[in-house]
Specification:
Strand content: 5-15%
Function: Uses inorganic polyphosphate (polyP) as a donor to convert GDP to GTP or ADP to ATP.
Distance between the termini: 55 Å
CATH topology: Rossmann fold
Helix content: 40-55%
CATH superfamily: P-loop containing nucleotide triphosphate hydrolases
Number of helices: 11
Shape: globular
Subunit structure: Homotetramer.
Keywords: Kinase, Transferase
Order of helices and strands: HHEHEHHEHHEHHHEH
GO molecular function, one term: polyphosphate kinase activity
Number of strands: 5
Family: Belongs to the polyphosphate kinase 2 (PPK2) family. Class I subfamily.
Strand order of the largest sheet: 2-3-1-4-5
Length: about 300
Amino acid sequence: MGKKKQGKDKDAGQGGPSDKAAKASKSGKAESTASRIDLADHKLSKSDYLEHLEALQVELNNVARWLQLTGHRVLVIFEGRDTAGKGGVINAISETLNPRQCHTVALSKPSEREQGQWYFQRHVAHLPAAGELVLFDRSWYNRAGVESVMGFCTPEQTDAFLAQVPRFEELLVEDGLLLFKYWLTVDQEHQEERFAERAEDPLKRWKLSPIDLQSREHYEEYGRARDRMFKATHTPHAPWTLVDFNDQRRGRLTLIRHLLDHLPDVQCPEPQFDFPKLSHPPLRESFKTKLKPLPPYPRLA
């Protein structure tokens, strides 16, 4: 999948927790278990989250330059239960990247014509070209999840999909595609909180659908379908990676860090531009027509 980055663990060999614990033990001042604080159990503040995210986004921009220079192709598949946080992590990855290079794909239900195609056909059209990063907000794995659980396909169609998808993905990887598959995990308690938030928030209500509401009663059934899918499609050439998204901020950072660590660690120089001073004072916009800008938005006070 690519050369892993080295030296990312700042705790290893640099006076991290393990070194500190060893020194404390030697001095007879070993920290008690009760006094230890597992930072993973504490919710990140928004400011801490944004600080960590910005550092990761700088690395993502380096990856984008590497893709442009080498012509490699990267496909990242995001799957998981409703409300897990797929859209949020996709936005965190893509928001600082060139939209001509980084594409998000979120397909709606297949049209009547697409239902008569080879199942993978409509997804193939959205695979990355040279130098591109494509993020799939759900993917062909709908067939093993919602379509199977909600009865939108036959058991025979699900069986055929699970038999075909490892071969399909192997062909993609053999052709040089860098493929990553992430499953975002969320407990039903958090899922219910997020459903309720969407129902109450007019800016998030579009995320709710009748299928989402029906799926609440099929939590365990979705879990069984997921496990069957993992058993058939977790392969050496296209493995699954599970990320805990009960805490969405920490989940985004965890996923992006994993993605970066599994791409080649190649530093691509940023383009340098001369930025000379203007040869004249800055000019104001002027219009020699009847067209004028709209009046400013009224103040709320």
